[in-house]
Design a protein that fits this description.
The protein has about 220 residues and is of the alpha+beta class. It contains ten helices and nine strands. The two termini are about 25 Å apart.
Length: about 220
């Protein structure tokens, strides 16, 4: 039986969920779960279909440089992940897990790009925290996320809960829209075609590192 060499991400996410349940009051947890259900039922933030051409964009990285998706895909496949922000523990676990497979992504001739609505200063702080080798792009006002059908508005009743937890999206994102992307990962080939995706309204679920490498290797064999 083949054994994956990659550390699984889902057990880490489940451990973070269990910790969140121990630390937060039931009313906050209920509000979080209700918002996930409401988002699913709304039909918003469902991402793009497989086979769709990935919309192009140019965004500022945490280093200050501009990165254009089409220029990156011209070099090879791109793992494009949209995350909520450095304040999200599940996003932090995902980014750290993807950093661990960085060399495997490169061996597959691909590159990783992470996009969030947070301002560049916040992305720089996040990079310093994790020492990430891939660019963190600032999608201020969620313009790229909207192109990928990921943008949604956080319900008003969650604003106070987040602020009580020390999370003010106004400060993180540089606007008062309280809009976020649904957590999503797309694997885009050299023709900018979406070959695989993981889009889930439940931010506690992300694409597994082993799945990313499996898909990249399958693209390389085409």
């Amino acid at each position: 039986m083949d054994k994956t060499p990659f550390q699984q991400l889902q057990p880490e996410l489940e451990a973070a969920t269990a910790q969140m349940k121990r630390m937060l009051p039931p009313e906050a947890l209920d509000a979080f779960e209700s918002s996930i259900r409401e988002l699913r039922e709304s039909g918003a933030g469902t991402g793009l279909e497989l086979g769709t051409k990935a919309p192009d964009f140019t965004l500022t990285a945490h280093t200050g440089s501009k990165i254009t998706l089409s220029e990156e895909t011209a070099k090879g496949p791109v793992v494009l992940t949209f995350f909520r922000g450095g304040w999200c523990p599940f996003c932090n676990l995902q980014l750290a897990a993807y950093e661990r497979i960085g060399s495997d992504i490169q061996k597959a001739g691909a590159r990783l790009i992470a996009v969030s609505p947070q301002i560049p200063d916040q992305s720089r702080l996040l990079n310093e925290k994790h020492r990430l080798s891939f660019p963190l792009l600032s999608d201020v006002h969620n313009q790229a996320a909207e192109k990928y059908n990921l943008k949604f508005k956080m319900p008003d009743h969650l604003h106070d809960i987040y602020r009580l937890l020390g999370i003010s999206l106004d400060a993180f994102n540089g606007d008062n829209s309280w809009e976020l992307p649904v957590s999503a990962t797309f694997i885009v080939d050299k023709e900018r075609t979406i070959r695989a995706s993981h889009v889930d309204a439940d931010y506690k679920k992300r694409m597994e590192p082993a799945e990313i490498i499996r898909i990249l290797n399958s693209i390389a064999s085409w």
